[in-house]
Every structure is written in C-alpha cells, then in structure tokens.
TrEMBL record, chain A:
This is Multidrug DMT transporter permease. CDD domains: Imelysin-like_EfeO (cd14656). It is found in: Periplasm. GO terms for cellular component: periplasmic space. Pfam families: Cupredoxin_1, Peptidase_M75. Residues 156-384 form the Imelysin-like domain. Keywords: Membrane, Signal, Transmembrane, Transmembrane helix. Belongs to the EfeM/EfeO family. Coiled coil: none annotated. The chain crosses the membrane at residues 18-37.
Automatic annotation (TrEMBL), chain B:
Keywords: Lipoprotein, Signal. NCBIfam families: EfeO, PRK10378.1. Pfam families: Peptidase_M75. This is EfeM/EfeO family lipoprotein. One of its GO terms (cellular component) is cell envelope. It comes from Phyllobacterium brassicacearum. Residues 36-268 form the Imelysin-like domain.
Amino acid sequence: MTQSAGSASPSSQRWMKLAVVGSAGLVIAGGLAFYYASKGTKSGNSADTIVVTIKDGTCTPNAITVPAGRSTFTIVNNSDRALEWEILDGVMVVEERENIVPGFSQTLQAKLKAGDYEITCGLLNSPRGTLHVTPSAEADAEAAKPALRAYLGPLAEFQVFLVTQANALVKATQALDDAIKAGDLEKARESWQKARAPYSQIEPMADLFADLHNAVNPVADYLEKREQDPGFTGFHRIEYGLYASNSLDGLAPVSAKLLADVSALKDRMRGLRIPPEQIAKGAARLLSSIAETKIIVGEDHYAKTDLADIEANLAGVSRMMALLKPVAMPAAPEAVTDIDSRMADADSALKALRGPDGYPPFDNVNAESRKTLAQRVQALAEAIGKLNAAVGLE
Amino acid sequence: MKLKFALAASLFALTAAALPQAASAEVSPLDLVQPIADYKIYVSENAEKLVTDTKAFTDAVKAGDVDKAKSLFGSTRMSYEAIEPIAELFSDLDGSIDSRADDHEKAEKDPEFTGFHRIEYGLFAENSTKDLEPFADKLMADVTELNKRITDLTLPPEKVVGGAAVLMEEVAATKISGEEDRYSHTDLWDFKANFDGSRKIFDLVRPLIEKDDSAFVTKVSGNFDAVDATLAKYKTADGYQLYEKLTEDDRAVLAAKVNTLAEDLSTLRGKLGLN
C-alpha cells in the first residue's frame, strides 16, 4: 500500500501534514521501488520485492517466476489511468490491489501455492502476464502437515452445511407436525420422508448429542417393550403410526416433541465447536454402523425407506470429504484418492438397487445385495478411518 | 479529490503495517469458525436478494419503464456492494457485473462495457432503455451465476476478515468522491451497503478481540457510529439522497472517519492471526 510519487499536491493543511508524516516512508519505498525497477528484478527469495511496472496495457516484466510461499510485489502505475492489479488463478482473484492511481505504486503480499497464475496489466481487455510459482521445500512441508488454520475455511463451510440441513429438518418437521394436527395421513407420510433426508445428512454430528439422538431416533428393537415402550419416541414412533397402524392416533404429542427436539438440535449445531479430526472420525463411525447394523437389520421397519436414508447418509459423508479435500489432497494424495474410489464404489452399489420408481422397499432387497452394499460401505469407512493419521491429525 | 483520500488511506495503512501487531496468541482458528460460517450465511442471503432484486430491475428495463428502472437501480446494487469482498473474487463476473467505463479501452462505447454501470449509463445519461435489453439479460445471467458460485465457495478466511478494511478503502477511493455511480449519483446507497458489509464483519469477530483489546473495539465502533449518524442525515423514505446533496462538511467528516476505519480495520487480520 505504499504510494510513491510526488505529483499529487494535497490542497488542505491537514492533508499536507499527513503527507509530511508519511513522506519518510514514501521516500524509502519509492527509492526501493526505483532501485528494483531499474534492476529489472524477476524473481528471488521471498524477502525480495518484485516490481511490476504497468504502462500502455503491458506489464514489465510480463512473465514472472517465484518460489511457493510468500512473495511481495510492488506495482508501479506508469499509465494514464487508475488501475487495479490482480493475481488470477483461472477466474478467481488470489490477491489484488485496487485504485492504483497514475504515477503511483502499491505493494501487496501474496502467499502462493505452486502453479501457474495470470497477472492483469491495466484495462480489462489488456493482455495478461504470467506468474509461474515453483514448488519450494518450505511450502511442501507446510502442505504435508496442514496447520489447524488450514482447516478454518472447510470447518466454517461444514458448519454452514450443518445449519442449512438443520434448518431444512426443522422446516420439514414443522410440516409433519402440521399435517398430523390437520389429520392428513398422506401429507404426513410425505413430510416424514422429507424430514428424514436432512436428518440423515447430518447424522454423523447429530448422533454426538446422546440425549437428543435417543429422543429423535430410537429404534423399537433396543427398547424393552419395543413399540409399547414409553421411550419409543421421535421419527420411528411416528413412522410406526403412519405406516404400521395407518393412523394418526396419539401422534400429535409425539410430533410436537420431535419438533422441539430437532429445533434444539439446530441450535446446538450452530454452536458446535468441531475440531477438524471429528469430520473423518464422525463419518467413519456412522458408515461402520450403517454397514454393521442398518444394512443388516434395517432401521425404518414400517416405512421400509432405509435406502433413501442411506443415500442421504452417503451424500452427507461425501460433502464432508469434499470440504476436507483441498487441505487433505496435497498432504495425503493416496488416502484421498482411495476415499474417492471407495465412495464411487459405495454409490454405485446403492444406485444399482434403484428402479424406475426410486428405491424399492428395503425388505425387497435380497441378502446378497445387502452384503455387497455393506462391504462397500465398510470399505469406505475404513478408507476414511485412515485419513486423520495420513494428514497428521492424530 | 480521489487522489487525496487514496493517498491518506495509503499513508495510514503504511503506518499501521509498520507498527508491531498487538498479541494475537489468544485467538485459536477454531474460534473463527462460527464468525466465518455466519458471514457465509450473510453473503448467501445477500446473493439471493441480489438475484431477486436484479430480476425486478432488469424486468423494468426490458419493459421499457425508465422511471421504474431508475428507481430500482440504487437499491438493487446494495446487496452486491455489501458482499463485495467475496463477489469480487470472481474476476470475470466482477468485470461483467460491476466494471466502470474507465476499465475499458473505449469507455462508454466499449462493447465489453456491460453490467450495472452500462445500464446506469443508458437510464440516467441517455434517459432511455433503448438497446439495454441484452445488457439486462446478461446482468441477470451473471448475478444468477454469482449466486451459484458463492454457494459452492469455501470462503477464504483471510479475505473475510480483510474484507472489513477492503470495503472501507473502497468507500474512500470511489464513493466519497462520487465517481462510482457517476450517471445516477446514487453513491450514498453504495456507501451505506459497503459500510454495512464492513460493520457486519467487524461485529462477527468483535467478541474475539473485545476482551484483550477493548480500546480498539471502542474506537472502531465509535467511528462506525459516527459514519452511520452522518449517513442517516441523508436517508429518505426509500433510500438515500443524491450524492450532490452531501455537504462539504459532512463529506469531510465521512472522509476522515472512513480513512481511520480503513486504517484500524486493516489490523484485524493480524489481531486474529490471519496474516
């Protein structure tokens, strides 16, 4: 951000004073810029400043090579119009300085990964220059064991995902509650299925809250008096009414409680502080339980919509892995590639069960198909289970 | 006018950069997850509003309703200006949505001059919707694409936190001088949106610095309040007065406060360990 020319003459005393205060710095920065500009520096270690002079829609130099890591650029505007200078990775702006006025220069620091970038050179249609960033030992070491900070972006995006799905869950559960209160069995069934998808997508995190998990998603098999047990609440209690009893009798208080519980879940998702290792850990844990239990004995005993749940489970896991990928790929390419191919295997085993009308009722899926699906999901769980160690998170 | 402010802003930034940063040891990256997630939601909501508002705006342009299109111009831009630190990461869309005539070789006559300011030129300088339909369609397609890309984007944390200062620098460089919306003179709408966007970022990270740096927080919020109070004088029933109504005294107050905010906010990244 150093301005380094003396042609502007601030009109008021105040501005003059500011200019004087900064002038020592300007002189030094200007001198440096001039020194480097006259030397025609093209590259060097990260302590050097690379001077890029722009005139008549051309950058000088027009092809720059720097090592990965931090670089400092000083952009001198020798054209007759104010301009912005950008480092572009495809269409994405990596760094930029705006409003560099004619006769002035600005400095910017960029932390760059190895690769090929473009630099802008004046007007929007001016030909661009190239910036080639070569691998460096320092940058490679940093990528091999990503610091906690590297996960900040993915973790924030994960939280957005959790909150978005939790909002969808609350909305669908509200519709379910409304339909039950209105005595509309068909609408209630439809809303119940709609609510299962967002719940299944965030299940790896939702099941961290034991109290809510036990209220929202208990299965009769694990309760002493099965369907007659007072602890039989939540989704499957409502499912039992909608699909086994074909009746809405007694469901109104259950759906009201479910709505309160998923709303509480939403609030907890928003405040959830997730360390990065929890993502792979949670995904692997859920997948193992799907392979070992859900696919073998089923969970939606009355609606028989287990395959739709599993599809949403896999979609959630896939999202989690996609978020980690930009950080994990440079650190552990084999582990990431392995996860990708196991994910594709699990997906194709599931999709193979899909008919023209969607997934069949789960009791129509034969033992052999279940076994294949369970094996693929288990293999995915194992691949994801290796990720934390591979990126140095444990 | 512009040069003066740009120069002052840079001097401040230079000074700020040269001073040792306050200790940032207390802020763990995990503390920043929620503010950045909340900011993503804010950006997404604005991007959706931009799509909705641009639909109404471009429909008016295409219907040949000059008065209606003019009345929607200022408000439609606000959701873009509020999220500019993220929106401008997409260089192709930023160029086609929000470039000014100056950015193009043949200025207003350049065939690549498109987007908001091209339509603004037609509506306000030529007082007509003649030949604007292709620009309206392109703008609508571009904001729709922007919304989609934002949904898929993992926000770079340093761009989020750095965005608070970037927005204030943007105000200092192009809004206080009245050169952004040079045909419509709706610069104060943009100013307000940039201001709100900057304050949103500050408010989100504020709890992380309040305890250790309460003097900084008090100073910055005081300056935000002062800018807000000055801007509020120009509020009308449906938006803001035209740029030329801004008095010389208020312009001076805004310039000084905005430059100080840009300077102070440029230290946020360092304070939060994101340099």
